[in-house]
Amino acid sequence: MGVLLLKRTNRILPVYAADISGICSALYELGGMTVMHDASGCNSTYTTHDEPRWYSMDSMVYISALSELEAVMGDDEKLVRDIVDAAVNLRPAFICMGGTPIPMMMGTDFKGIARMIENKTGIPTFGIATNGMHSYVRGAGEALRWIVKRFCPPQARQEKLVEMEARCDKIHLQGAEQEGALKVNILGVTPLDFSLTGNAARLRDFPGSHGMETVGCWAMESGLDELRLAGLAHVNLVVSAVGLPAAIELKEMYGTPYVVGTPVGGSTSRRLADCIRQAARTGENQSLFDCAGEALRRDASVSLRPDLGLSGLPEDLSGEKVLIIGEQVIAGSLRCSLREEFGADQVTVLCPTEGDEALAMEGDIIDWDEDEVIRAIGESTVVVADPLYRQVCPANRNIVFVDFPHEACSGRMYHSMMRPFVGAPDGFCSGVNKRQ
Q1: Beta-ladder partners of 96
Q2: In 10 A of CB 154, how many CB atoms?
Q3: Cβ atoms of residues 200 and 230 within 8 Å
Q4: What's residue 175's pLDDT?
Q5: 177 vs 183: CA distance, rounded Å
Q6: What CA–CA distance (Å, rounded) separates 174 from 268?
Q7: Rounded Cα–Cα distance for residues 88 and 92 (Å)
Q8: How far is CA 5 from CA 9, 81, 370, in A?
């Protein structure tokens, strides 16, 4: 057991933003009050490293300022009193509490405390027993799932199922004779994955560029009122692993199918739109990755290439051994684009956050340690990763390192290098470099 723990300890590489930061990020724009149950000062870690909106957009993100005596004595009454006093003055749309390592060791009953606060304030309240031992994916995913549970009306379930069944009967096999535009929720949008470089706006525009409508963007550039309308959507689009718990909850509540994939590159975006139409026709979940292995390779004579926001990416990746390090859904979608539009035939995804075997392809690495990351980089010829991974890139190997800054990994350190990677409506540019 001791050897396993040591292997899971990073000596060089950074860890990703923690689950509590994921909660704060997912709920930031929804008008609620988020309280981290932790010692005073820890809020600055979130605001300084993980939240690029902090200086441009107000939000009610607080910390309980847990003291050593309170931790020893387990004084939950003070926590309840402080939150109730703040809520009476601020009147948030909801209250969410998130845990950290200290409450985990104290055995804090977040569900019980949430009931007490809701009884005293009349404001919807929920607690998420995060513990700081997981990445932002776990916390943000749970936060969005709770928004579904508390704010999406379950009484609409039967009407929704009837409407979905009727719609599936009316849609033509090719999708050309449908009545009205398909309505889509976009799930899993936070700055930790998509930053503030225009990706969120492009994601909102993606359905419209394919003749569909966006109901809500969970949870950037959409308010709580839009999220309440989630049941109106015919399909939910999961653009990062953060959106999966909410998609599963919405599937159970309304029967709405979901599609997994991010619109990265022109060909990949068009295939993703086809997956959405397929999900609407059949009522079954779809994944961009299901047929990725069957996708045709790009013609090397094509001069226009998709703008993936990756400066220095070789124009032809055929024969290269490519490693992509990043969040699983985004990295997997980027792989699709590299295969279909850059001719890459050997692409491995290494997921440094929580990964799902069902979304992985053969050879992908989703359960790893630092030594395995270093080995995988050393065996590759092209590496697409956050710049912090450069420090373990062997200097004696002819490896092309393509910077792909990730807010959840390096925070604001490389914000000036970040460019939008979600496909624009035209989808192409010529800004791709030849490998020397």
Answers
A1: 34, 126
A2: 12
A3: no
A4: 43
A5: 15
A6: 19
A7: 9
A8: 6, 39, 12
- What are the C-alpha distances in Å from 257 to residues 240, 247, 299, 306, 333? 16, 8, 34, 29, 19
* Higher per-residue confidence, 66 vs 236: 236
What burial class does residue 2 get, using C-beta atoms within 10 Å of its C-beta: 0-12 exposed, 13-18 middle, 19+ buried?
exposed
* The pLDDT value given to residue 9: 79
Structure tokens that stand for 345 in this block: 């035939």
> Is the pLDDT higher at 211 or at 292?
211
pLDDT in tens, 209-262: 999 999 999 999 999 999 999 999 999 999 999 999 999 999 999 999 999 999
CA dihedral angle for residue 146, residue 147, residue 148, residue 153, rounded to 10 degrees: 120
Percent of the chain with pLDDT over 70: 86
**Tokens encoding 206:** 């993606």
Are the CB atoms for 260 and 272 separated by under 8 Å? no
> Tell me, what amino acid is at 269?
S
Residue whose entry in the numeric block shows the structure tokens 């390779």 = 297
The type of residue at 22 is G
pTM of the model: 0.90
- Residue 414 token pair: 């490389």
Residues 47-51: contacts with CB under 8 Å, at least 24 apart: 48/411, 48/412, 49/17, 49/411, 49/412, 50/17, 50/21, 50/24, 50/25, 50/136, 50/192, 50/407, 50/408, 50/411, 51/21, 51/24, 51/25, 51/191
**pLDDT for 120-152, tens place per residue?**
999 999 999 999 999 999 999 999 999 999 999
In this structure, are residues 136 and 353 in contact, taking their beta carbons and an 8 Å threshold? Answer: yes
Which residues are CB-contacts of 310 (< 8 A; sequence separation ≥ 6)? 384, 402, 403, 404, 419, 421
